[in-house]
Amino acid sequence: MANEAEALPEGSQVVRDRATTSFSDLWKKEDYWAIWLGFFLLLVGLIIFLPRGPEGMRDKIAKANATLEAESARAPFKTVAWYQAVDAKKKLKATSSSAGKFIKNFTNKPHGWKGNPVQAFVFSKDAADAKNAAAAVKYDAAKASAAETLTAAKVAQAAAASAGFSNETLNAQAVDAIDDWRAAHTKESKAKKKAAAKPFNQIPYLIGLMIVMGIFFGIGWAVMGKSFGKFVVGFVFVFLIAVLAYVAAGNSTMKQYGIGYAAWAILFGLIISNTVGTPKWVMEAVQVEYYIKTGLVLLGAEILFGKILSIGVPGIFVAWVVTPTVLILTYIFGQKVVKIPSKTLNITVSSDMSVCGVSAAIATASACRAKKEELTLAVGLSLVFTSVMMIVMPAVIKATGMPHVLGGAWMGGTIDATGAVAAAGAFLSDRALYVAATIKMIQNVLIGVIAFCVAIYWCARVDRIPGQKVPASEIWHRFPKFVIGFIVASIIFSLMYESIGKDVGYTLIDQGAIRGFSKIFRGWFFCLAFVSIGLATNFRELKEHFSGGKPLILYVCGQSFNLILTLLMAYIMFYKVFPEITARI
């Protein structure tokens, strides 16, 4: 990003020069390379997983759907058989293929660990056996609890059925018993995973992954006219710091407190850059935007319109009405009340806090030409508050007895990071997780819209020279082009998902090309970007932008307003305007 906002072009010659160079931009600019690299990975993922559906996939799906239809017609609530049919479909994953398992092993990040960090890389058979033996006790207890609650759920459901499902009291008792069984079932699944540890040696895979990704990004770097060799050498250092960030985040205590890889990646980078200093030979590979823009193109494929529509109008209102409202009012508040000197810092923090965290901050910073220090500050604030909110909000929802649909919508609309939203929702229930994740997905759609609007506003108002007409080419020049890849990926994958059917799409695309391939790489690319942010940032540069604590005041006030407005809108939409939709969730 440019360190200072650029004035608009003066004279038609500059505009003509931009027009003549636009075609070569397709292979000389990192925005376009982010698109080409992102789509290459998406294509590879489709080639690998689309032909590899589980055996008997369509027959199993048809059988489960017949059960779902019959149970929906039989009872006014989701029955035991209904949930079992859903579970049967969820087990169908293209990632279960041999190719999927190999890719998972090859691309896996360092594993979780408790007392010995070496176990993040190497886990012996004896250690695996010991861990399984220790976890078996909890698994047996969880299994017994799940069986007991399942029996109770069937009994309560039978009582409701004997009354023809016309007794509201018996129906409510059946729903509560089924909810208890689902909670116990979730605990059993988690305990089963912990009791199924296998020995591994991740080091060879990590070395192979480092080489592959270094070449992957290095090719684009070379075509852009830079040094392939220098980039790859520096990339080794950046990748190793990313690995350390994953190791730190994999510690059981860090997981408990929600301190993820992003915070560690930035922290490790900052420590290096502000002590011994980032070596010059590393700086060639310290490319924040190159990594994260490619990751954002991959993120576009994860935003499927069918899933957005599945939660209906209430979710769209929560995400698409509250978000721009909070963004605009927070920006005005920052300028008029807090009086933040830098408008680019103001809009970047506002976008980060109101839309979806780091992804929105990157897109907005590109559109308004924010300084890298301003982006770093916005991302840092986001990570700190995300870690706090993902722990505090589920506790508040649980303590107040808030309905999980409402709580999920509240968290999905306010917690910045998608991963943190999923973790917070899973802490409550499957319903909360589903609603929270879907709301966040709907909100993510706004990344491109916000970037486009910010580019127009900055051209027409902020950077506009009085008396000068702003040409459309200037808006195009300023607009972050990788957003086009983000949008196109979303459209293509959404159309594919719907064309092959929701259930087959879930198996082959969602649980194949996306979760088994592109999403894994997206996580690595984001981690590389966060490391680069730290390595390229000096505390002395941040100090200037944090003067008087104004960015912190802006974030706290804006997020407080966001929390209140999102909760109010979610309550009105899900419980007053569209209660019938809420009942189906």
Can you give a write-up of this model?
This protein has 585 residues and is mainly α. The protein contains 30 helices and 2 strands. Helix 12 (261-273) packs parallel to helix 27 (502-535) and helix 19 runs parallel beside helix 24 (446-462).
Q: What is the compact description of this entry?
A:
It is built from 30 helices and two strands. It has 585 residues and is mainly α.
Topology:
Blueprint: H1 12-21, H2 25-28, H3 30-49, H4 57-74, H5 80-90, H6 98-107, E1 122-123, H7 125-162, H8 168-194, E2 200-201, H9 203-223, H10 228-249, H11 252-256, H12 261-273, H13 280-283, H14 288-302, H15 305-310, H16 313-320, H17 322-338, H18 343-356, H19 358-368, H20 372-400, H21 404-414, H22 418-428, H23 430-444, H24 446-462, H25 472-478, H26 482-499, H27 502-535, H28 539-545, H29 550-577, H30 579-584
Antiparallel strand pairs: 1-2
Helix pairs in contact: 3-14, 3-26, 3-27, 4-5, 6-27, 7-8, 9-10, 10-12, 10-27, 12-27, 14-26, 14-27, 16-23, 16-29, 17-18, 17-29, 18-19, 18-20, 18-24, 18-29, 19-20, 19-24, 20-22, 21-22, 21-23, 21-29, 22-23, 26-27
